[in-house]
From TrEMBL:
InterPro entries: Ubiquitin-activating_enz
Biological classification of the source: Eukaryota, Metazoa, Chordata, Craniata, Vertebrata
Name by which UniProt lists this protein: SAE1 enzyme
Gene3D superfamilies for this protein: NAD(P)-binding Rossmann-like Domain
Gene Ontology MF term list: ubiquitin-like modifier activating enzyme activity
Gene source species: Chionis minor (Black-faced sheathbill)
Protein origin, superkingdom: Eukaryota
Amino acid sequence: VCLTCCSRDVMVKIDQICHKNSIKFFTGDVFGYHGYMFADLGEHEFVEEKPKIAKVNPGVEDGPDTKKAKLDSSETTMVKKRVVFCQLKEALAVDWSGEKAKAALKRTAPDYFLLQ
């Protein structure tokens, strides 16, 4: 489900319905130069391709580089990952008075507060 130009209450209500029924939810809007996008994909599983780390033979080379693991770009492995997305209601209900939230505030884009 994709929403745009909706009120906050409508977005929260539709996201709750989508989350309960395992339906992916996207919402966003633009206000001049500022905008936002939110995605609730529920439990999302995906596969990521990672380069294999080549083992270094001790005794073949000498020096500080021999201790470092080297990435072999020709060989890759597939790593299955799982991410659990939060609901829009939870994302908007952050308590900004706690110490942990104060540290996160520095990394939070000012556009987050457009919905507030």
